[in-house]
Amino acid sequence: CVQSAHYNPLFIYSPVGMGKTHLLNAIGLEAGNAKKTMFISAERFMYHFIRSIKNKEMVKFKDFFRMANIFIIDDIQFISGKEAMQEEFFHTFNALLERGSQIVISSSIPPTDLDRIQERIKSRMSGGLVIDIQPPDLDLKIKILKNKFQEIKLNFKENYDLNDEVFEFLASEVTSSIRELVGALNRVLAFSKINTKSPTIYECKKILKDFINYNNKSINVESIQNVVALYFNLNIQEMLSPRRSRALARPRQIAMYLAKQYTTNSLPDIGRKFSNRDHTTVIHA
User: Fold this and answer.
1) Of 137, 222, 236, 257, which sits most exposed with the smallest number of CB within 10 A?
2) What is the pLDDT, as a whole number, of residue 1?
């Protein structure tokens, strides 16, 4: 994809822990052998930008970031709400395209969903190829676990093994992200090292009880309302009441916001679950 000029920019998005940064590193390492490649996080880009302003070195900053043949920037959502930085990124983006450089961008959400980012930037980021990293299926997760296990055995000279049923159990029970899947594997490996044996499924359930419980929790509007009400020391009836005092309105708004972020309910659906409030109230929240 990086070598195809009509896929410019290449925009990759997925939830956290799915391997975006890992993939960008692989692209950079592969392309870096032949071309001048620059890989930077959006946070680091901002650091250089602010430092250049303070040191009155903006010309140097512009020259440095606009000379790459391949420009890779990670976690672009970080520039949300930072107007001055967005302005500079916009001009850097255009300058790179004009000189024929390939741009690769990653984010936790698609460009159209980025909040408080200029429309012209979102439009340009959508103008190439936008792809998402889908969660791996069971077979792929088992392969990832086994490869990671072999890597650990090789690097740390471990001499114990895990049963296939342990890999299958981990792959089927830990569903949130690849990062947490590897974290669960590390726990099982620690148990194996201490006890010099491969754990049974029963032992795996005990070792990973918080992982499994976390992944099995269903997130819906009602559970969010309960958590928010508990946090603010309110009962549900108070939070859903028509009263508009700040002590009730702010928790109510937070619960609406979280409901939109973490459930698939529509705005009118969320409004109905908050004592039949209008969808515009949810938008305001």
Assistant:
1) 137
2) 45
